[in-house]
Each structure stands twice: as structure tokens, then as C-alpha cells.
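=== RUN LOG ===
request id: a7f3
mode: sequence -> structure
chains: 1
length: 273
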Amino acid sequence: MDNWHSASVEINGTNIHYHRTGGPGPVLLLIHGFTDNGLCWSRVARQLEANYDILMLDSRGHGLSDKPEKGYSSNDLAADVAGVAEALNLGPLMILGHSVGAITAATVASKYPELVCGLMLEDPIWRNKEKGASKKSAATTKAIRQQIVIQQKLSAQQIEASGRKNCPTWNPDDFPAWVQAKQQVSPDVADTVSSIISNWQEVAAALQCPTLLITGDPEKDAVVSPAIVAEAQLIIPKMRHINLAHAGHNIRRESFQPYLSAVSQFMDSIIVI
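=== RESULT ===
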């Protein structure tokens, strides 16, 4: 970690911040989940940095990236990622995303296929659209915005204590970046919610690269259900799937070694030209 460096790239008037390990191998770009930041990937990066050149982005509105009032759709976030990749001359690269970050990763791979040679999705927000979804989305967006504002009135110690109480299986090393991320995030990122209720199938059908879908247990708050997995397998011809049943939505934090093994084996199987 001492050798990592950080910088920002201006993409369409927005500065996107990143940390980079500068390893000797292929490029691996990591996209964090909702209200996290790039350094929330630190445990994964430390395990993989000997073999990969790893970039951990702060998505707009998060971490040290700019925090515009608007521009939080999946397409906006994907354009930021593509812009960073092009500015740093990174492609083709492998992308690993978690949660909303997995939605962004899949959108990048579908809209900019020339940039991505391998895609890994950790419990993406893939649900089938329900009646009244737009109305529910508006209410959820408002509630999330309020939750962020309330949380940011707490001290770092209070945020960490709440996290440790709610996530007792996490490694202690996961908390410092997680706490920092909660203090950094803009309430405006709540607008992302309205863009993830659209049909995930449209993005999935456009995926051309090898894809790994990593899922957890819906009984433990994982998002992707077995029915969605079955549908995705029909839509994405190059998709592999692994289920880590002991984990919920935060799969890598709750089942770290099996997760790391699955990711490493998948990347080893991809020939980067």
C-alpha cells in the first residue's frame, strides 16, 4: 500500500479520483458500491497487487471525486469509467464491480466493449421491474438522501460502532475506508436509485466479454435471486456463476477467501492480448 499512488482525471468537467497500485501485470479496475469509496477495495487490492495493476476509482459523488448535483445515472457513471480508461490508455482491461458498481461495470462493458476483456459482477442490483417501481423509487431516493444526511452528523466512532454492530462478520480492516466513505459521500448520489430500476436484461444482452457473476444468499440480504441467475445464464452466453451461500450482499467482506479464489481463477482464465 505504501507504493500506491493517487491522482484525478477530468472527465466531461468532473474530476474522478483513483488510487493505483502500479503492479506489473494486466490492468484490473475496481468499482465500489453505493456510498463506499475506492479504498473499500483495499483488502482485495493488497492480495492481488503482485500480479495486477489495480485501479480503485472513487465514483462521482464519492470519496475524493467531484460531487456534482446531477449526473448520477448508470450511463453517467459508465461514461466516467470509460473516460478514465481512455485517458490513461488502459484498455482492454478487466473490471470488477460491487452492487451499484457492478451495474456500472456491466454498463461499461455493454456500451464500450472495446475497453473490457473480462467482467466480474459482485451481487449487482438485478431485479425484475415491478408495478409502481417509479413511485417506489422516488420514495426510496428521498429516504436514502435523508439517511446520508443524518449519518454524516455522526462522528467517525459512531459510524464505525454502528457498522461493527450490523456487520459482525467483517474483517476489522474493512472498517476504516468504509467509515471514511460514509463521511465523504454526497447526498446527491441518492439519484442513482432511479436509474437502476430499468431492465437489467437490456444491458446483460449486450455483454460480449467473459463474465463472472458472484452471488450470495438472498436470505442474508443478497440481491440476485436464483431466478435472476437462471435468466442471466440464458441471456449472457459467456457467463459463469458462483454462489457463495454464506454471504449476503457484501460478499467479499463476508466470504473473503472463497471470493478471492473465484475472482483469481476467473482472471487467470482470461488471455489478455
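=== NOTES ===
The radius of gyration is 17 Å.
Residues 144 and 190 are 6 Å apart (CA to CA).
=== END ===
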